[in-house]
Design goal:
By secondary structure, the protein is an alpha+beta fold. Strands 2-3-1-4 form a 4-stranded antiparallel beta sheet, with helices on both faces. α3 packs across α4.
């Protein structure tokens, strides 16, 4: 059974023109793009997206970064989409990401790690609705 998940290409990867290279990796891995858009998140929208991190010391820096320039939101579909995307994306810290993963190849550091991927089917549904209501 097919499952949907969300990938966001973050400002650092958008600014460095990696959108096409990241999409190529998604398609090569068997993901189908269901919906996609480029948007410049406002501070308020970025804070809303990351409200799960409210009260954490890195929230302000994350919100400022995510609202600094456009992102690309992509709703994806395939069997086992959430787990497969998390594997393709790699560890949050690119220094710990497996060789050949998106973060190992494109991320600058832990803060500018190029992409966000949903961590569960439940969160994927919420995040897809957030971007594609």
């Amino acid at each position: 059974m097919k499952q949907q998940t969300l990938l966001m290409i973050k400002p650092d990867a958008v600014q460095r023109n990696f959108i096409g290279r990241i999409i190529e990796r998604l398609e090569t891995a068997g993901f189908q793009i269901v919906q996609m858009k480029m948007v410049h998140l406002t501070v308020a929208r970025a804070r809303e997206f990351y409200e799960v991190h409210e009260g954490k010391p890195f929230l302000e820096e994350l919100v400022a970064f995510m609202s600094s320039s456009p992102i690309v939101a992509i709703a994806l579909e395939k069997e086992n989409a959430v787990a497969d995307l998390r594997e393709l994306v790699g560890a949050t810290n690119p220094a710990e990401a497996a060789c050949g993963t998106i973060r190992q190849c494109f991320a600058i550091d832990m803060g500018k790690n190029s992409v966000h991927a949903s961590d569960s089917p439940e969160n994927a549904a919420v995040e897809i609705r957030f971007h594609f209501a």
